Amino acid sequence: MVLECKHVWNYISEFLDDSLPRETKELVQKHLENCEICSAILDSTRNILILTADDRVFELPAGYGERLHARLAREIHSANRRPENPTRD
Amino acid sequence: MSIADARSLERNEAQMIAAILTGDRELYHRLIQPYELRVYRMALSFVKDETEAEDVAQEAFLMAFRNLANFRGESKFGTWLISITLNEARRRLRRRSAVRMESLDDSLEEGGKVSPALLRDWREIPSEALERREVRALLQKAIEGLSPIYREVLVLRDIEELSIEETSGMLAISISSVKVRLHRARIMLQKELAPKLKLASPKKRRWLSWY
After folding, report:
1. Would you say residue A33 has pLDDT above 70?
2. The complex's ipTM?
3. What domains appear along chain B, each with residue ranges and CATH number?
4. Cβ–Cβ below 8 Å for B179 and A14
């Protein structure tokens, strides 16, 4: 069986996750060896997903950590003061 | 992170959680430190506004603190935090869409075909390209531009690196729905981003040949 390009496109996500059945995977691989368009689509998708997952894409706003921990400190302080919740010290 | 590191992190977390629950609450600051970026990023990819994302993140960390006794350790602490964040972000989106009289379900259709951007070749874009604000903005906008049902699957699976099974459990949808949506989300990102990133990536050789 020979796969057409549009069939290969349906398998891209599972191919990247390496979750295709062996036979399908081999058919896709064979197609990719001979098709520069599908290879470019696969490479670009993989490349884009790697970039997307990078920690640098979404940066923390300045002061985020300080504000977060200040709020948590207030919460912890009031939890410590509740009589039913004695602290260890 | 190696498997050994991940295991020792989980063990440390379990110890910290037990200590917090018996009164050493200050430890909570340390417990959540590794998750500050993840929780914020999760929130931002949903609410799309930095100030509101920070609110969602703070709220999620507070809720996790208040409900820590309910964390049973059946999932990882990080996964539990992510699910609290997801629920809080969804709650706000629902409230927002109720105000605007529009439905989140507008874009819930799963039919129709998505096809990728056709390219003849692809020049690998290295992660150093992310040093450029312009490239980061392209990626953020593309993720935020996905419909909610596609965005949540993509963020959980490809950014938070949950497994297909964990994603399915967290969103309460079937494994096959996760796979279908993930496929579509990935192809939509490729279609949106491949042409733009290609234009945005400098061709070093041409520049160097000037010297």
Report:
1. yes
2. 0.86
3. 3-101 (1.10.1740.10), 127-202 (1.10.10.10)
4. yes
